[in-house]
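Run log, item B.
One chain of 118 residues. Sequence copied directly from the ordering sheet:
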Amino acid sequence: MSFKSPLLAALAATVLAVPALAQEIHVLDTYARSASPTAKTGAAFMLIENIGDADDRLLGATSPAAQKVELHTHLEEGGVMKMMHVEEGFAIAAGETLVLQRGGAHVMLMGLTESFEQ
């Protein structure tokens, strides 16, 4: 597994910190972006494969590049898309892949402590 930045390496280390199933979870195609080099927020995206026989759940993430990290998704309310914190995390069923992507489920990075390379 290779990462394009220390931020993503730390993020993936958190994702992989599942005690019993770490060898059955694969994190692929990782990248992070911010709106601009001076933005104070950013987001990380990836595929998380559960190749095991048991369901699992992504409960959270941490990063040295942000003061606060949350799991988010977008929901439509009254014709307007809103970003929502998903406190219960994201289910990853056995044999399935969780897709964290722009416009959907993602890892939100707030209070960036370093700028992202665009």
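Observations after the first pass:
- The first helix runs from residue 6 to 15.
- The chain has a mean pLDDT of 84.
Flagged for discussion on Thursday.
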